[in-house]
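hey can u run this one w/ GLP bound, need the structure tokens asap thx
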Amino acid sequence: MRIYQESDYQEMSRRAAGIIAAELVRKPECVLGLATGSTPVGTYKLLVEGNRRGDFSFKKVTTVNLDEYKGLAPDHEQSYRFFMQDNLFNSIDVVPERTNVPDGLAQNAEAECARYDALVESLGYADLQLLGLGRNGHIGFNEPGESFVKPTHVVDLTESTIEANARFFASPDEVPRQALTMGVGVIMAARRVLLIASGEDKSEALYQAVCGPITPQCPASILQLHRDVVIVADTAALEKVAAAGVSVCG
Ligand code: GLP
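ok here u go:
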């Protein structure tokens, strides 16, 4: 696990975008695992700028997103498909047919999860999987629970996640109660994982993920078993990790 400490959100975004850009140069036909939430917005902005400058291209890239709310249409402003179109896909040279997000409207959500797993497997899994971090230690929408769930599955969102995500909706009642998410097995199958975190409200979750026991109570803690994880976080998010004496770069 390599940890980069950056001074603030902008520097975190710059470092993360630099790592993704390097992957695009290393392997132009790579499979990129992408995430949503407020944390990657700055990273995506920098990737759009770099793509416009011609520093790298997404023309041969295939993308696989982590998750989607169950019941939200792709054109719903809070769906993760909409988020990806708005923050990245509409502004880069990616081939639209090679962007993949689970279908939140699928009649049979379990069948959609199986289809998504087969798709990601057929692509050989992500070369680089970007992850945000939930305040309760979730990755994708893998919530704290009794066991790590390996495949893509339908999940009941916890109250803390519904509350955290309510800021994007007109009222907490509008936040979907379920989502489709890549399981931790699919995330762990990625060749490299890039986890980004910003702000002091991620400090405890990041500490548990890096220094705590490997437990499904903190889904991100399973990353301790991955052989190639890069964490890019700002000073506020790394406060507890740094206080524990864990060595960081940058
Ligand atoms: C959501 C997403 C996660 C994301 C998390 C943190 O629950 N499903 O993939 O990492 O929120 O979001 P934020 O970056 O806004 O703190």
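The longest helix spans residues 9-26. anyway lmk if its weird
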